[in-house]
Amino acid sequence: MPKPITPKKFQQDLLTWFDQHGRHDLPWQQDINPYRVWVSEIMLQQTQVSAVIPYYQRFMQSFPTVQALAAATQDEVLAHWSGLGYYARARNLHKCAQTVVNQHGGEFPADVEALAELPGIGRSTAGAIASISMGLVAPILDGNVKRVLARIHAVAGWPGQTAVANQLWEIAERYTPESRSGDYTQAMMDLGATLCTRSRPACERCPFTRHCTARLQGNPTDYPGKKPRKEKPERQATLLLIEHDGELYLEQRPATGIWGGLWIPPQLEGDDGGEASAQEWLAARDLSATEIQPLPPMRHTFSHFHLDIHPVWITLPKKPTQVAEGPSGWYKLRQLDRPRSGQDLGLPAPIAKLVKQLLALKEPLLAPY
């Protein structure tokens, strides 16, 4: 059996470890305010710190305040998010900024329940904002904290189940201190991110090595329980890379759904590529091509399915003025490859890769930039 530990001792040991070994120089730990903490917490959902840092820095440079973010267009926000994935986060971020400005006078509510009611902010994120930027006593339960608490107390089961989540929340509330709540929150996230990692926990360096039930059982990686596995279905789609003289035709996706609000080439759902599909699409719009060339397929994995993308490069002899009824346009490949050059569009990561590929094929033929 592990050596019992009181909440007070847990807090003391954790904060002592954090003061000596925790991370104190991350960008969102500087000039702390609710806005900066909120943006970092949303970006860090499902994404590692190393990947977030450059996005966060660019985002803060372009949108230094919640007012600046609220005043931005969705295209501008999505352009700064391109490559981070889970784009609903960006859309909710924009919506939340507008809610804070329009309904709360530009100030984040100093109340956990009110924060949790804002778009895209749940109970744990609200607790992080409240504790780190406002000094309020508020527990959190992000993925790192779930892992730490589930291992220390050998809480069996997948945290996505209500009973398991409720048990972990009860433990989180019991351990949350009345003082240094912000440091405690940072420390719990740091412990999970740097020592109590998913696959190779550094138990020998953990401040709770004598108190961790999972370690004493010899099976820390069994906790927390895994989500029941389900095979991801596979879908097919053809992307028509319609190009004329170094410009690519793009259409904006609907606001909701996969790649919501982002810009992509015309997509043929359920299609596995080929010249025939491209010819049919062109004929339906009274267009003709000088060349149609299938490019190597690529796979992009979403949270709930695999998408096998079949790109087809279509060169048009002239640029039509109107191809679709919705938002669309022609964009220079070179500027799409340099999104900070003034042509900010939200591009999904696979589309950005295809732009680079197409640009590499076209570069020798294009005029000097």
Quick gist of this model?
By secondary structure, the protein is an alpha+beta fold. It contains 15 helices and eight strands.
The percent range for helix content is 40-55%
Q: Which band does the percent of strand residues land in?
A: 5-15%
CATH architecture of the largest domain: Orthogonal Bundle
How many domains? The number is 2
The count of strands amounts to 8
Q: Characterize the largest beta sheet: strand count, sense, and whether it forms a barrel.
A: 8 strands, mixed
- Kindly identify the CATH topology of the largest domain: Endonuclease III, domain 1
- N→C terminal distance: 69 Å
- Poorly predicted regions are none
Rg: 24 Å
Shape: elongated
The topology string of helices and strands comes to HHHHHHHHHHHHEEEEHEEEEHH
Summed over residues and divided by their number, the pLDDT gives a mean of: 91
Oligomer: single chain
Structural class: alpha+beta
CATH-defined superfamily of the largest domain: Hypothetical protein, domain 2
- How many DSSP helices? 15
CATH secondary-structure class of the largest domain: Mainly Alpha
